[in-house]
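Standup notes, structure subgroup. Blocker cleared on the D-xylulose input:
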Amino acid sequence: MPTRIFSFGLWTVMNAGADPFGVPTRAPLDALHAISGLAAHGVGAFELHAEDLIPPGSGRAERDRLIREARARMADTGIVCDACGSSLFTEPVFKDGAFVSNDARVRSLALARYKDAIDVGDFLGAPLFNIWGGRDGSEVEASRSPIEALKRLRDAFNDLADYIARQGYAMRLSIEPKPNEPRGDLYISTVGHALGFIATLEHPDRVGVVPELAHAALAGLNPAHEVAHALYAGKLFGLHLNAQRPLRFDQDLRFGGAGLKDSFFVVKLLEDENWPLPRTFDAHPYRTTDEQGVWSFVQGCIRAYEVLADKVAQFNADAEVRALLAEIRGWDRTAETGPASPPRVFAYERLDHLVFEILTGTRSR
Ligand code: XUL
Ligand code: MN
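Run returned:
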């Protein structure tokens, strides 16, 4: 496999440690400092919300200056931008949705803002514009028909895909699904929802999915299966790696911080399938962390991925694992002879235990 590229959302290292119950606990990093700092820590790419770099309300001259500065840092360090998006979800005007708002003026504003962000992505050479519609959901089900919401989302995605094509930008679009938080229920909740929705668009080929491990865990789903559905459909345009204890508030833990076995099987899938795109982390350094800890968070995410990739290699090379998997494949070859009687015992106990031993480092190579 070619050298693996690691990527971080700029917002991850710029996160100041605020949560719904508490104010920030550290000074936010400036975006340009974040770009240089990531590059200095061996990170090859970054994602951003356009607003991470260009505060909302900045004039054209300030926008152009910040883009020039960012590009200079990229040229100096070699770090590239692998995806852009927009953080409309932070702004009060979009409190009841951007694309799905019941106010047509808000929907038009959202489209205009997304187009501005797409322009920023193009200036930075981003091959992907990723949309997590954090406010495109509801708490009051009676406020809007979910069918109407989907039609509004469809019209918005068609409009943005058309804008990208008309501008001649070499950029694909993606949807990052999430079941809830901050809204009670978001309309595009899982990879399956996103794939079904994309099939209704005018140009489904231009739109893919960015699954996030924490979002799958929020829905109580197996993250490797979420990623597999996107891969199988040829739609894995990006991926957000992090960790999350299932069915809780959105924790955005450091990759490796929870769900070790689930993380292992996601890495196994990506490595076995030779998925070529950057491994992007979208997590938050702990609230108890200072700036030095932010960089240790970056190193921790990367190291966790590398350790798990090494465990994948160990698993794939293990003689006993290979023998067990060969035996399993052998069962399949007898399929023509009809249902086995009595039913076969599927002897997976040892296989699963070998995963445990490899992950805990208790099995020698
Ligand atoms: C929210 C989330 C976002 C998106 C980018 O849970 O994952 O940070 O990745 O807007
Ligand atoms: Mn994300």
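Discussed briefly. The pocket of manganese (II) ion (ligand 2) is lined by residues 132, 176, 212, 240, 282 (CB under 6 Å).
Next: hand off to the docking folks.
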